[in-house]
User: What shape does this take?
Amino acid sequence: MSPVGTMNLDLDHETRAFRAEVRSWLAANVPTAPLPPVDTPEGDRAHRAWERRLAAAGLSVVSWPTAYGGRDVSPLQWLIFEEEYHRARAPVRINQNGLFLLAPTLFTHGTAEQRARLLPRMARADDVWAQAWSEPEAGSDLAGIRSRAVRTDGGWLLSGQKTWSTRAAQADHAFGLFRTGVDRHRGLTYLMFDLRAAGVTVRPIQQVGGATGFAEIFLDQVFVPDADVLGAVDQGWTVAMSTAGHERGLSLRSPGRFTAAAQRLVRLWCQAGTHTDPALSDRVVAGWIAARAYQLHSYGTATQEAADRTPEPPPPPGRADRPAQAGATALRGSGHAASMTKVFWSELDVALHEVALDLLGPHAETGGLRADSAGRAGDAGGADAWLDGYLFSLAGPIYAGTNEIQRTVIAERVLGLPRGRR
Amino acid sequence: MKLTPSAEQEQFAAALHAMLTEADIPTVARQWAADDPAPGQVLWRRLAELGVTGLAVPARWGGLAAHPADLVVACEELGHHALPGPAAESIAALPMLLTTLGDDALCETWLPRLANGEVIGTLAVPPHVPYATDADVVSLVLRADEQTLRLGVPGPRRRSVDDTRRLVEVADGALLATGPAVGPAVGHALNAGALACAAQLLGAGHALLETTLRYAGQRTQFGQPIGQFQAVKHQLADVAIGLEFARPLLYAAAVALADHPTTTARDVSAAKVACADAAQRAARTALQVHGAIGYARESGLGSWLTRIWALARTWGTQSWHRERIRTALATGALT
Assistant: This one.
């Protein structure tokens, strides 16, 4: 037996054409001056308007089915879209919680009615969504949430407190878990609610850099109709974990973001005349390698996903005797593999920005601490953008499940080590 | 685009894995180190039967003319089993060197016999590969630099931390080739050797992760398996992450070696740096999680540890590979 395999990194004609189309549209349409900070009233308007332009061009949700405003492109083409989007330094996606976290859950667990009602509006940013997972006493221990949903005529009454809710200060709707039963995991229900409804109070929280990217949400008998339960009652944990997989994995922080940041870092390194400093150069090289590893890893995952849509031959003999293998083969199809991705990209993001700040030296601190500039890693030489990006990157190892939680998930669910106390 | 192993490649790896599992490599390796290379040479013939030794040899000279990705798949298995012998040299670097050089007489003399396993070859490429590994027990020894390719004359042995690596100083022997074609051929051989070396490192790292996971699930302290402690879990998770994200760089380097000469140096170096880092993290963690028993020779962990310590620094040091990437990036960014 001998292999007859090939590998290549060449995109097919259709994907190349798609890249060209996206690149050319972005070149013609991305605002030359950055939009106002997304958490200000004028920034909110500008970012919503940008989303409407994207949607009108058919580019706001390219991976979705056409019925909901998408173009049904392949996972690989979605990665290409993201590369181009970040390369063009296009505005942060104001609705990313909806697009990247809620929408995948709606596709998996939502009803046809929910999809038809919510997705097209989400695609145009008619509705901007916030996430409402954490509570003051339930952070890493998410299943410990206390906010309740109590049965009432035709729906539920929500009471309690949510916190660290990204975008809640300006969003229209939110989604999260609420306690509907006593069982720790099987007594939770996934609900979507109107942030403008009676009984909702939102208090913005200022972040370490001065921006107000997240908020607390206080809920006092807030009515939610049955139509806004996502998945079955008491099955919210399962539903939420599918969203968590998206948040941890590729979709929230696509490789395009880091590919673009690594390229800007290399330019900064050369422009700053620091490419002869061996210590800094080694860190630039390490950042570039890691960003490329994430990009290539995602290509592999995306093309494999496409291949997995067709029936596969049974696994080859001889592999079964190997214990939990961390290789590409063993990890395929494992939702928990997203935890590996999350640790990798969040640490990569911090590292890229730390090197950039070191390259900028005493100029690093002079950036005006502007509001949330998520996704805008900055001009090659723009200290303020690198600084904002650094502040944003530092949240990465914390949100979407801390990296400590992720490492435990990897050890137990991917590597098969025995479960223990947290 | 295709950047994951095909079903054929997975079957090939599985067949190789089955053969090597059955072959009792630890015993063969001990014999190889103790001046009894015969069992290792027999094993080499079996590698040839599976096609491993002919992967990088053109069909014209009796080989399979396979894609470098096939070489990566094979070398990962060889590293996984800590096979003794000059794999990077005989399976990857020498065939690529002779093929690229394009001297029909040399090719005709050596390539068919390298492919069918009759000849095991090795080479020194100072300063990156200062010694010819196993030169005293194989039948083709070369010594190359940027200007000349010569036969190598085996001299004194040098001890390696990995006692299966029989490091031999080689003096200049008969001149085989000189002139402008030698430099590019040697450069290609260095890339092929580094790629094969990186693949072995990844395989060895995976072997250590698997062994350590088994041990952590069995060894009990404080009334529970040590693998239940988060301090152990998190270290092993980091090992798994390092290996997982090194592999795509390895495949991309194979693609570059086949099709993209302008990025080959950069991409092979990225693979070598990432695989060596990931394997060394796996080695350090494996030893730490095993504790004292891992430090004892009887545990057998040492076959992989010492292999990783050696391979991580040969076929180009980490500094040399990072420097190649630095140059590629600086040139690309400034133009």
Q: What stands out?
A: Chain A has three domains: 13-94, 129-237, 249-308+327-414.
